[in-house]
Write a structure and sequence with these properties.
alpha/beta; about 200 residues; Rossmann fold; 5 helices; eight-stranded mixed beta sheet; about 25% strand; three-stranded mixed beta sheet; FTHF_cligase-like_sf
């Protein structure tokens, strides 16, 4: 178990190092290519209620994806992580990306529960999930906070779980622990990987 955690930590550090070696223009090009693949992806286009994430450092930036999803009339749902409460994750519908978000526990933006309506898990069509490292089988390593590790197993089997990650962060195998769950599909700037 400890060996698995150490290996995950090493892979996280390597992934962040590879990203730091790129200039902002190169990163922006890769993010744009991932965005284009997502908006050409049939499961996403057919979905109505979409769970998104707002990026923590090192994750694929979804800022433009969120803006564009508004134009596609998607119902945008974002998680609010409450580590000291039960349940530790709550989902909220975000109507105004500019006004409905506040800084969250992961250092990124999260829905403001005073402005947003709660959404039940079972109504999600698709979940867009972040990761720093992924493999072709759907294994993922996040930032290490465990936030999405808690959320992914709670998602209904009918909700497609789609990871966004840079191609350079696809590894042969992600070390998995008993609580880790696999994603269904991975989208990088160069391809869509179907695990299902």
């Amino acid at each position: 178990m400890e060996e698995t955690r150490e290996r995950k930590s090493e892979l996280r550090e390597e992934a962040l190092g590879r990203l730091a070696a790129l200039d902002p223009g190169q990163i922006a090009e890769k993010v744009k290519a991932i965005e284009e693949r997502l908006f050409e992806f049939a499961n996403f286009l057919e979905s109505r209620i979409v769970l998104f994430y707002t990026p923590a450092p090192g994750e694929v930036d979804t800022t433009e994806i969120l803006r564009r999803s508004v134009m596609y009339n998607k119902i945008i749902v974002l998680p609010l992580f409450l580590p000291d409460q039960d349940p530790a994750v709550r989902l909220y519908k975000v109507d105004d990306i500019q006004k409905d978000l506040v800084k969250g526990t992961r250092g990124n933006l999260e829905p403001n529960p005073k402005r947003c309506k709660s959404v039940p898990l079972d109504c999600l069509d698709i979940a867009i999930v972040p990761g720093l490292v992924m493999d072709e089988k759907g294994g993922r390593i996040g930032t290490g906070h465990g936030s999405f590790d808690q959320l992914i197993p709670e998602l209904p089997a009918t909700t497609r779980k789609v990871g966004l990650v840079f191609e350079s962060r696809i590894v042969p195998a992600v070390p998995m622990e008993s609580h880790d769950k696999y994603l269904d599909i991975i989208i990088t700037e160069t391809r869509i990987i179907y695990k299902i």
